[in-house]
């Protein structure tokens, strides 16, 4: 048996293991070929070995919290193992931190943390949030707290982004002990800008505030640690991420928090599994963690899938994954910035560390047209729009929008305006190759060279979409659940016959 612990071939083997990476789709010219998936910031592909672990577990499937029959005992142990893998992945001491699973992503975790922290210290009525947050790490805090202060970033225009520690220091001094917590992303989902999370922890801890980190865009791209042992009082209080952002589609969100903090708060969700006893006139919440934070029957299969992914990545080493991605980021930035018709957003990677998320526009193309044409002509799949970070995207686009006589901040439901207020976004994963980056660059150059032709062949659809006037994908080219079910049933019937 091959030793998989720190095996030098493991990274390459895993890069080639992802389900659906080479799924073929038709192109405008009538040919077909494998896609190049550059939409990992939205959701990642499934790691095959992790999927295989979950599939194996289904042979033993049962609910957790019992050990009186084999399957239930195995499910409980596997579910506990998934929690342990989460803690290990972020270097969290089990004696100090607890991990629990929640919802279908990070959003459920932020809603619960916002509700619980605001209820814990109502006298601290201010929450700090950066201007580059995804809506899931913005809106819950607005709902549950008295005053939210949005922290401005460094730079301006297309280069806007990244935390300015001096600005944060001034704001922390201004609001002092009114601050309950600071919620900030570890990496932007628009520009990939990385946040100095441990320096932020020191700042807010100086006034007794907590630090809540959205690690959804950071977790799969760079080493993450709950504490920096070289710094005093720089440990993270709460960290939240989505399993589907780290190669485990269908897995839950994960929350890692200090056990002492969780124990001092009333659980936000009630139901089976989180109580010690229930009477007609009262109930007694469990003091056991993570049980008291996981009401109801858990997503056991998804948690095990996530645990397997994290275990694999620990074996590879996130430092190796980060090194590979830095090379691809630099390559993409160098090639794209050399194209005069391409606008890039956020600071260059030599100015500010960033993950493999690159937002751009092609001059003369709406963002939706860029995404549609890259798909239809080159099988390159990118995202377009404002990426659930509307204020940040509008700030980055201000010079362009002003030039078009569009007010970036004015409420506007007109489709022709919304088609201008957005970007295309190429985002990398562990499976992204140098060939993918070069293909993207070549495709963009091709679209620019055929600008008038492309513009004449597409018509707008809705506020963000574009549709080719002549090209209609072949029937069955896109996944159809009914067709897939019919095929599965026929296969099963053939087995009986």
């Amino acid at each position: 048996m091959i030793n998989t612990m720190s095996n030098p071939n493991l990274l390459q083997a895993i890069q080639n293991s992802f389900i659906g990476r080479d799924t073929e789709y038709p192109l405008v010219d009538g040919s077909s070929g494998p896609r190049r998936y550059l939409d990992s910031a939205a959701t990642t592909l499934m790691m095959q070995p992790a999927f295989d672990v979950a599939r194996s577990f289904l042979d033993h499937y049962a609910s957790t919290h019992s050990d009186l029959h084999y399957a239930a005992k195995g499910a409980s142990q596997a579910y506990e193992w998934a929690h342990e893998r989460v803690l290990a992945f972020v270097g969290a001491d089990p004696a100090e931190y607890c991990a629990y699973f929640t919802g279908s992503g990070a959003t459920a975790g932020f809603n619960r943390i916002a509700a619980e922290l605001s209820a814990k210290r109502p006298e601290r009525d201010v929450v700090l949030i950066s201007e580059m947050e995804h809506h899931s790490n913005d809106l819950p805090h607005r709902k549950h707290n008295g005053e939210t202060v949005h922290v401005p970033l460094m730079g301006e225009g297309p280069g806007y982004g990244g935390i300015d520690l001096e600005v944060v220091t001034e704001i922390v001094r201004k609001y002092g002990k009114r601050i309950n917590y600071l919620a900030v992303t570890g990496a932007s989902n628009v520009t990939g800008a990385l946040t100095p999370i441990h320096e932020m922890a020191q700042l807010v801890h100086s006034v007794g505030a907590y630090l809540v980190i959205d690690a959804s865009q950071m977790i799969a791209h760079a080493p993450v640690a709950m504490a920096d042992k070289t710094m005093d009082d720089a440990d993270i209080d709460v960290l939240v991420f989505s399993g589907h952002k780290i190669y485990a589609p269908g897995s839950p969100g994960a929350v890692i928090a200090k056990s002492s903090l969780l124990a001092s708060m009333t659980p936000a969700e009630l139901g089976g599994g989180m109580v010690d006893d229930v009477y007609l006139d009262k109930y007694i919440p469990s003091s056991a963690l993570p049980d008291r934070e996981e009401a109801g029957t858990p997503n056991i299969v998804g948690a095990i899938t996530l645990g397997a992914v994290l275990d694999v990545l620990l074996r590879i080493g996130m430092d190796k994954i980060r090194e590979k991605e830095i090379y691809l980021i630099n390559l993409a930035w160098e090639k794209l910035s050399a194209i005069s018709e391409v606008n890039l957003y956020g600071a260059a990677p030599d100015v500010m560390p960033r993950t493999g998320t690159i937002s751009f526009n092609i001059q003369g193309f709406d963002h939706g047209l860029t995404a549609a044409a890259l798909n239809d002509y080159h099988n390159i799949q990118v995202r377009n729009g404002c990426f659930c970070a509307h204020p940040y995207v509008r700030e980055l686009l201000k010079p362009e929008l002003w030039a078009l006589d569009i007010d970036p901040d004015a409420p506007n439901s007109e489709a022709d305006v919304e088609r201008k207020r957005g970007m295309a976004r190429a985002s990398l994963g562990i499976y992204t190759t140098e060939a993918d980056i070069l293909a993207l660059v070549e495709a963009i150059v091709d679209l620019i060279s055929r600008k008038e032709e492309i513009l004449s062949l597409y018509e707008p659809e809705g506020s963000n979409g574009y549709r080719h006037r002549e090209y209609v994908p072949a029937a069955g080219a896109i996944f159809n659940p009914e067709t897939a079910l019919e095929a599965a049933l026929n296969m099963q019937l053939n087995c009986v016959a």
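The chain has 16 helices and 21 strands. The first helix runs from residue 10 to 15.
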